[in-house]
Each structure stands twice: as structure tokens, then as C-alpha cells.
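Here comes a specimen:
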Amino acid sequence: MSPPTTTIFDRMSALARELGAINLGQGFPDLPEPPELLEAAQRALVEKSNQYPPMRGLADLRDAVARYYAREQGLQIEPEEVIVTSGATEALAAAIFAFLRPGDEAILFQPFYDAYLPLVERAGGVARTVSLVPPRWSLPLDRFEAAIGPRTRLVILNTPNNPTGTLVDDATLEALGELCERHDLILLCDEVWEGMIYGGAKHMSPLALSSLRERAVKVGSAGKIFSLTGWKVGWAIAAPPLAEAIARQHQYLTFTTPTPLQWAVAEGLGLPTEWHADHRARYEAGRDRLVNGLTAAGYALLPSQGTWFVTVDLAASGLPPDDEAVAERLIREVGVASIPPSVFYRDDPERGYLRLCFAKDDATLDEAIARLARFRQG
């Protein structure tokens, strides 16, 4: 098992605080928080229970999750298929512990969220990696199929993808589903950024496909949908036999999640589609502001369909294709923290890109653009 280490997000954020840098590294917003959610949490704290909720989550929240996905994604989900967890990472952990036994293999698509690999290893599993292909970060189905072996049990997919900001297209997802069905694999799909998709792009969940409906686990996050990252309210959704296995693991990980926040999230999920569109539009405006400003400064950026992140192509921007070295220089020379995407790899990392977070107010983004422009000119 890999030794535990401090995450790149903690390290870069600590360095940003030490140096007084603008933090475009860790993915947390500094825009005004939704008052509807804060007011709902305040009411729940005073007017409702603060004691243990049911282990699988409040009935109100599980109902609200099912209704939200019916309205927003056309999914038919029953409340008993929903397990409420203390954030999406706990949902991922419960699913990985439920479906991997020592010696089982899991396929991970690089670059991947940094929790996947240590969780697979903690379960006693063996990770096999398949790299997405830049600059479109396409999923190579031939390499995926070649990675499947007799011990393969689980596939972990992230769409919209962090750090690349891209979506798996429908045709690729359908082909992936056919391969999972053919080889009897479970697909664990991290969909936490589904509420932050821009420009009319559409997200398809594996639960929408007949080949995956009984063998996929959908992971969602209220923290990402509502930009309240500290609330740590998430969920896993799966067909009843899979949901039961996840619940057995969940009960010994955190057992439950703060009761007033569950009620508040249930109320928030019931807000109309127009509210969610307006909330998302604030972040799309930040993406456009950062992309336009950096493009004018001579940087080359890859398309970002979702998340709170954009990717800089270092070589095309006239910079050395060494993401860690450039990130170190940026924070020390002009005071802007970023994340080198190579840390999201285990094998043969891509080093020619840099990830920046745009979930910031206009003044912060404008100052970051000015500093990054000076860096490129210098």
C-alpha cells in the first residue's frame, strides 16, 4: 500500500497562505453562498431534530435526490436506491470497500481524483491505469479493453472529469457499458460535477443506460451542486443489491451525516431548474472571464465543459512543459497557486498542462490574470 501523504491541494493551499498568493489551486469557491441553502440549514437546526437520522439518510433527502434526478436528468430512481454519505469521497470509499476484495483489480482512468488509488489499495485491490488522450482527453476503448483481466472487478470513471473539465461522450459511455456488461464489471461513476456543466453540454449518467443500470453506482455531491464544499453531504445511487452492499460499508465508515444539513439539501434539491441554471451561470461567467483574460495574455487553454477548472497547455503557451516546475515558479514569482495535473497520475504522467480554478470573484480573477500575464512576459 502506498504510504499516506499530504495531498497536493493541502500543500499548495498551505504555500499560498504562507506566501499570500492567490489560490487558483484548490477547488473551493469564494463567491457568495446560496442564501436559500443557508436559511434552510438555520431553520432545520432550530426547528428539526439534531439527533441521529436513519443510517441510509433522511427519507426526505432520499426522496429529494430521486426527484432531482428525474427532473434534471430523466433518471428513474427509487429512494431505496439512494445512500446518503458524508461527502462524495465517503460514497466512493463505501463502494470501493463493498466491491473489491484483496487481489481484485480496479481500472482507473488517468488523470484521476487523488482519493481513488489509496482507497483501492486500502481495500486490498490492485489498480490498473488507462490514460485519457490529450488534448481532448478522450477515453481509449481499445486500451481499456486490453486492461481487463480475469481479476478485474471494478471500473472507476469520473465524468465530468477533474482535472480536465471534459465529459465522456454518449457513444463512448455506451461502448464502455457494453464492455462492462460483457466482462461482468461494476462501474463506479464519480459524477460530482454534474451540476457544473456549461455551454449547453449534456451529461449522461451510466444509470441512463440499460447495460449499466444494474451494475453502475452513481456518486453525487451536494457540496458541488450548491458550492458548499464544507457541508460534506453526498450520496451513492445503485440498484438495490449494490445499494445494500454499499450501505453495509457506510454504516461502519461514518454511519450518518449531520441531520440539519440533510434537510437543507433536500430543500435545495427541490428548487426549480431555473434556480440551478442561474447558480451555474455564475461559475460559467468566471470560466469565461479567466479564459478570455489568459487568452489575451497569450496563454493557450483547452476547452472546459464542466467543473470549476480550466487547463493551460504549457508548450502551446510558450512555457516549459513541466507542470510541477511551472507551478512552483508561479506561486513564488508572481503569487498564483495552481495544480500540476501530473499529480493525478500514477503511471507515465502528462506534464505539459496546468490546472487553474475559476470559482473566484471578478476582482480575484482579474488580479490573477494580471499576474499570470506578467509571468509569461517575464
